[in-house]
Design goal:
The chain is α/β, with parallel strands linked by helices. The chain folds into two domains: 8-174 and 338-365, Rossmann fold, CATH 3.40.50.11700; 185-333, Rossmann fold (3-Layer(aba) Sandwich). It is 36% helix and 24% strand. It has twelve helices and 16 strands. The longest helix has 18 residues, at 144-161. The model has no long low-confidence stretch (mean pLDDT 88).
Length: 370
Amino acid sequence: MAINYSWSYVDQFLIEELTSILNEKPRKTGEALVIVGKGWDPRMGCFVSHLKQNIGKYKKNNRICLIDYKPEKEYKSPQSKFIKKNMDILDGVSSNWSEIEKVEIITRNPDNAYVGDRKIIQFVKKLNINNTSDIFVDISSLPKSIYFPLIKTIAGLIITNKQNQNLFIITCQDSELDRSITESVDDVRSLASFGGTYQMEGKIHAEKIWVPLLEKGQSRSVEELYNYLKPGDIYPVLPFPSQHIRCDDDIKHEYMENFLDVWTLNPLNIIYAAENDPIDVYKSIKRLYEELTEILKPLGNIALATSPLSSKLSSLGVLMVSTEYEIMVAHAIGRHNPPTEMNEKYWRADQFSIFQKQIHGLWLLGDNSI
């Protein structure tokens, strides 16, 4: 299903702006539903804590949906002490304010194939959101393989219900922390509900095009995705402007062998999009898709795949354009490991305050004519 989002982006989703939107904008009343992922990431409880403390509209009877995703039912995380710290925060927030609904998502089948994306779709289709006016999906501690199909499926439910419910996507953006998180490459494929037309059998395409959002430290993912997709042409997206002024140069240096020897990349194919602006990413890929479609129309249809090897914030631009145009999202799926220096300082009050000032949001659906 193709979705046209009625989005509105708040550059820095500070609580003052959110308060103004939710407390002063007249809409139907109802409970809040906050969806978060259970994990070791210290940003897991940042937004829901801020929501309870500062949004007067939500007094009680709210819902926190906790997605407990793990490879097998009896899996014990080596980061259990960090997970406990996050759960202590969440339990404190829920007291006299909300219920916590725990949802277990087993991401691997008996053959060890990844099925987390399909399992989350099955769960969302059964989710009751009829009495919910505002839905917040906090992706700060969720992987892309979960939150891409999660968000798209919820958006589909809202559109089907025709109740003008508000869908907010929240993330705490800390580029330094994100770049220090490592991820294995266990499965490479398109995400469920994001198959697009790239690999449709019997369909003739003039060109298979790949648009990867590149980030440092993703060399193996880039190699596996390239071998999987076998694209005819590549348009890499680099973060500029970014938090670090030389980030795009560092990425070029890291992938220079791919650019020159493997991809034989035309330098004019490189696209730049702001690291902290999903709308810039969305518009850049949309513009490329429409231009290539027009240029190659005499030769036939194009098939485009994209891979968000990037920050979570910029990945939301990929999510939007891929649902609007049925573009494939090809992803290297693996297990996330925390920074080697991860310790209890990440949960100190001063660090928690810094994280809360780095909350961003994307208002995807609802009455966002502000």
